[in-house]
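Task 17 of the worksheet. Students: predict the tertiary structure of the chain below and write it out as structure tokens. Keep your answer in the requested format; marks are given for formatting as well as content.
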Amino acid sequence: MPVKKLMALLGLVALLAGCTARQGEAPAPDLTIEEHAVTERGADQPTHFEFNDRIPASVKEKRAPWRKLPERRWDNLPAANAALSPFGYELVTVPEAGAELIKGRDLVVGHLSEIGPVAVRGDGKDFAFVAYSSSRGSILVRANGIQPWEEGDHYFQPPVFAGNDLIEVKIDGQSSERFILLQNGKEVYRGVAGPVITDLPLRRLATWNSTWVVEIKGDVILGGKSQKQALGYDELFEWRLVDGKPFYFFRKDGKVGISYGGKDQGARYDEVVHYMCCEPAMFNPAGNEQMVWFYARKGEMWHYVEAGLFR
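Model answer:
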């Protein structure tokens, strides 16, 4: 096999394996995983609010400031404004009127009550975010203008940039079980998200290393490739970035493990709560750029677990 083709093949294998190390980049450090035993499942289960009362206050308080989730409220604007500033835009709060998007002294759109994360094109020439305006409804805001945005048609997932390409997902026709992925408005992928039982089956739209990532229930599609199939897992779920590197849970041979930066972190569980709805949904894994917290069972014992880069 020619050297160039061999190198290209090895690069694809590294991408599918979740390797995050670019040339000259240090490999991801191992996560610190702290497990706190809560109770045996015969006594209680993480299905109701009161289950959290079983977790000692000292455990809850230890990293309370770390467990900060991204918000869509108009009063959480620093990150959004940092992304918008190079374009000359700013989000400002207005008493009793939510927030306004301005450019210089000109009002672009007002009465904003929710603002999603701001995605920026790779070359810095465009941005995109979803917001809700009481006067205009849900809208997609970009550098070149504003357009209506029906969140339900997009599985409530805002668009993202993969390099210089705007990526969005849409329900395929009238069936929410199937989805279409659009790149700069053109269809590039069709997939099956799965049946709608208690929640939408398409869980996440993201990017990593300029490649689009879609999580459906039980699998992650990376640039058009099923990671469950590529990596030989029975299930792969709760994909996210921690410190810019992929984190996810996988199920294989009846046990649930954790992968971070392409490396098995060694932990094994019989069950990790995920994809729950309604009241039990509060026990689904949650995370941010620093850590992930979740509820897991080992044998008969339920644990509250925090996994992160605890410097």
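Marker's comment: The chain is about 10% helix and 45% strand. Residues 3-16 form the longest helix (14 residues).
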